[in-house]
Amino acid sequence: MYTIEGMTSEGGGAVAFPVMTLAFKIKPSVARDFSLLIQSCGMTAAAFTIFWMKVQLEWNSIIYCTLGGLFGIIFGLEFIDPHLTPPQKKIGFVSIWFSFAFALFLLNRYKNRRTFTSIPGFTPGKAMVLFITGVFGGIFTSFAGSGVDICSFSVLTLLFRVSEKTATPTSVILMAINTVIGSYWRAVMMNTVEPITWDYLAVSIPIVAIGAPMGSLIGTHFHRQVLAALIYILDTVALISAYAIVKTNAVLIGVSVGIILFGFAFFFGVTKLGEWLLKKIEARELDA
């Protein structure tokens, strides 16, 4: 799990949250706090490895998504998370990111699609897109312990056509910053982290401190299609597990299906918009 934290855009929280809530029946609030705390350790360790290896990063995404994520996670912790029930958090989390994985799968059917190492032709409008992405990612992180990393990854790959090789380490840096902020807000400002969460953290730190940097190291040697395949597997397994374990009703199932369908439509639209932007870039290159 902790090797995945440093290896893919879906940090350890994307694995820890569904495993703890679905398999071990741990309260979502505890799982969320644990995800924040453990990633604040693991992701920062992985970030050090990324900086040390001088891996290509998309700094515009790091700056503007961080600013948006700062607002999003605080707003979500204070005003959104308290109003969601545990089943809603579990099903909502896996439904949102399954739809993203499906969209990424559709995009990667084009094996030789053009990708960039950074956002081409960066403008204030693209900065605003990244800021809004950070806001929503911070809100998702506030109730699931993971979100800004996947949101950033989805916008970078689907909309701006940045390679997964760049988007993945960028998302790791983003999540390191966001989880430190979230951990501080929960533990210090709200002072509501349950004691058992600290016990889980204590036994996990020695593992994550090694596993996450190792994941970042391994990830730099994998093809972007391999990293994408890991995302497909993680999100599909999480969705199937959620439906098998969580006690659902007609309303919750309807909401889940609605989220997935809306997510398909949203990410498909983002993908098509990315195609349009790519055509504009290529047209400018031909004119030049």
Describe the structure.
- This protein has 11 helices and no strands.
- It is mainly alpha-helical.
- It starts with a helix and ends with a helix.
- It has helices at 2-7, 12-23, 28-53, 59-80, 86-107, 124-144, 148-159, 164-189, 195-219, 224-245, 250-287.
- The protein is globular and about 60 Å long.
- The model is unreliable at 1-6 (pLDDT under 50).
- Helix 4 (59-80) crosses helix 6 (124-144), helix 6 (124-144) runs antiparallel to helix 7 and helix 7 (148-159) crosses helix 11.
Give me a quick take on this structure:
This protein has 288 residues and is mostly helical.
User: In this structure, how is the largest beta sheet organized?
Assistant: none
End-to-end C-alpha gap: 47 Å
Number of separate helices: 11
Report mean pLDDT, rounded to a whole number. 86
List the helices and strands and how they pair.
Layout: H1 2-7, H2 12-23, H3 28-53, H4 59-80, H5 86-107, H6 124-144, H7 148-159, H8 164-189, H9 195-219, H10 224-245, H11 250-287
Question: Any descriptors?
Answer:
81% helix; mainly alpha; 11 helices; 288 residues; single chain; disordered N terminus
